[in-house]
Amino acid sequence: MKFITVSFTILLQFVLLVSSSLQAQSGEEIFKLKCSPCHTIGKGKLVGPDLSGVTKRREEAWLMKFIKSSQTVVNSGDENAKKIFEEFNKVVMPDPGLSDPEIKKVLTYIESQGGSVVSETIVSKIRPLSEATPDNYEKGKKLFSGELRLVNDGAPCVSCHNIPEVTALGGGNLALDLTHSFSKLSEGGLTNIIQTQPFPVMNMAFVNNPITDEEVFDIAAYLKGVDAANQNVQQTNQPINFLYSGIGGLFLLLFVFGGLWHNRRKRSVNFEIYKRQEDYIRKNS
Amino acid sequence: MDVRAQISMVFHLDKCIGCHTCSIACKNIWTDRKGAEYMWWNNVETKPGTGYPTKWENQSIYNGGWVKNGNDIGLRGAGKLKGLLNIFHNPNLPVIDDYYEPFTYKYLDLIESPDMDDQPTARPISLITGKPINIKMGPNWDDDMSGTPDYARNDPNMEGLSAAEQEAMFQLEKLAFFYLPRICNHCLNPACVASCPSGAIYKRGEDGVVLINQKVCRAWRMCVTACPYKKSYYNWSTGKSEKCILCYPRIEAGYAPACMHSCVGRIRYLGVLLYDADLINDTASSENEDLINRQLDIILDPFDPKVISAAKANGVADSTITAAQNSPVYKFVKEWGLALPLHPEFRTLPMLFYVPPLLPVMAKLTTVDNTDQSKKMDDRAKYWPDNWLYDTSTEELFSTIEQARMPLKYMANLFSAGDESKIVNVMKKLMAIRMHRRRATVGDISDEKADNMLEQSGYNALTADDIYYLTSLAKFDDRFVIPASHREQAIEMLEFTGDVKGSVGFGFIEKPARGI
Question: What is the pTM of this model?
C-alpha cells in the first residue's frame, strides 16, 4: 500500500512538472519542441509536410482536430487526412499532448512566419548520408547494439528498438522495429528524429544525454544500410511470435520434464497407510 | 600397509529382547532437543518389518549407498552432477512422514482444566507444529510385527523369496520375528562423508568415529540421502544435520556408549579393530559375492608382529594395540567367524557386526497321527485337530537349520548380500555351541555327537567355552574393551599445540547460529 502511495505521488509530481513547464511557453517554443523535428515552415518536407501557410489551406477546426490526434481523424475516414497519411509513408504523427490554447498559439506562430511551401525534401542537416563509408556503418551498428558507448552515456537504441540482425534474441519491443525506418522517414526525417527525439519517451531518455552529431550520422548510416539490405524482408510481428514460442516452449518443457522425472518420488512412503487411517477416522467420526 | 584403528561393535541378536532401553538411553542424552525429536540415533526394529524410516533398506526409494561402476564405485544418489541436478528439490530425501511426526501429550490439561461434565484428557500434540494431531506413526510402529500387512509384508528383504515362502512366514503358528537394533555403523567407506558438499563430515583418525562438524554443516542434507542406513538426520531447528556420535565424550572418558551401557540383554560388545586403509577402495569395489569376505579380510590380526610394527609406525598407540588384542569384536568377527555386517551390498564397509539369531528355536514340523492321543482327552477339553508335531529333537545334527522358520534367504539378504552359505555357516557354529552347552547342562546329548558338531564347525571344546563365556557370562570389562583415547596426540598430528599454548582455555560453547 505504501509503495502504491509513494509511486502515485511521484507520478503526480511528474505530470504537474511537465504540464507546468509547457504552460509558460510561447507558440515558437512549442513549435520548436514539438513540431520542428518533422515539420518546417517554408523550408521543405521533412518527415511530414512543410507547414507554411497551412492555416490558409485548411480550416482551423480541422487543424485543431488533426493536431490533437491525427490518427483519430485518419481512422474516422476523412479523405484529406488519409491522403496526407498515405503520402508521407504512413508515418504516424504522435499526439503532441497540447491543450486547445497551446495549439492556437502554435497556429498563430505558423501564420506569423508566412513564407511559401517548398516541395523538395530536405536532406540531412549534418551532411548527406551518401558520404557515409563502411566505417560509419560499422560504428553505427555498434552504437545501435550498445557495443560502443554513446559519448554522453545515452541508452543504446537496442534497449527500445529492434533490428533482427543485431542481437540473437532481438532488441527491445518498447518502440518500433527500425529495419525499414530509412525508407519510411527519408534521410532528413531520420537524422532529424535521431537528433531531436520528438517522441516523448525517446525525448526523456536523451534529454540529459544528447546524441552527438557524429553519432547521429553513424546511426543513420547504419539504418540506411540495414534498410537497403532488408528490402525484401517482410517485417515480422515479433511480440506475438514471442508469446507463441513462449507458450509452445512451456509445453515442451513440461513434456520433457514429465518424461525425465516420471519416476520421481512424489509422496511419502507411508502415504497409503496414512490415507487409510485418515479415511477410517473420517468415516467413523 | 596403512594400519588404522577403528572402534567397532558387535550386536548379538539372539540376546536382544526388543525392550528399546538403548533407544531411550540415547534419546535422553542426545536427541531430546527441539528439531531432534524425530531422530533416533539408536532404534530397534522388528524384522521382518519396514523399519525406520519406512523401507530404509529400499535404495530405489532413497538412493543411498554406493554402486559399482566398472572397477570403481560411485555414490548412487549424490556427487557433483547428481547433487547439482537435485540441488533445489531432492526427491530421494526422506520427508518427515517417512519417519513420523513426533508428538507429545498436553499433560497440563489433566490438572489445569476447569470443572466440567467430562474428565479431561491429554490430547496428543505435534512437536513440530505444536497443534493437536492424530498420531499416525511412531518410530517403532511395526514393533512385534503389529500391522503386519502394512509393515512386515512390505519388508524390502523379502526380495528373492518366492510368494509361497513369503506367505509361509506369516502363517499362524509359523510366524516368527526377531529384533534388529541399529546405530550408525561408523563405516570404513562412509557414503555420508563422500556426499557432503561442505566437507563437514569426517571420520576421526584415531578411532574411526564418523562425526558431523556443526560449524561447517550447510544443511545440504546430501548425507541424509547418501547414508543407506538412514542414520544421518536433519535438525530443522538448528539447520544442521546430526548423527550418532558413538557417545565419543563417554568413550574418551572410558565409558561405554549410553546405548551399550544400558543394554538389558547385554547384547552389545565394543572394541578396537585394526584394519588396512590401503585396501578400502579395492574392497568396496569388489564383486558382490566377494564383498563380505573381502570386508572381513581388511581387518588385520592384532597379534601379527608385522601388523603391530606397521600400526606403531602409523602412530597407533600401544594401548590401542593392546585393546585390539583383547577386543571382543575381533573375537566374534574374525576369530570365531560368528558376526556379519548388516547389508554389505551397500558397499560402505559398515563396522557394526551382528551375530544372526538362531532364534526362534530351531524345530521342524513333522506330520504325525494324533487321533490316538486325542481320544485320551476328556470330552470337554478343547480339541485341536492337528496332525503335526513341533519337533525339537536333535537326532539329525544340522538339518533344522535348512528348515529354519526365518528363511535363510531372508537372513542372507540382511547380513551377507544374499549369500546363504555364509548364514548357514554361522548358524551351524551357533548350533554347535548350543549343543555343546546342552551336553553340559541338560545332558541329553552324547559327547560323541556334541564333539562331532563342534568339529564340523571348526571349533574345539575350549573355544566353545570361550564363546559361551563371552556370550552369556561376560562382565562389563569383557564386553567393552575401550582404549585410552589419546585425543591430545590425535590433535597434535593435525596442528602444533605450542602455537596456542597459554592463549586458550576450554574454548567457548557456540550454538549453531543458523535456524528457522
Answer: 0.71
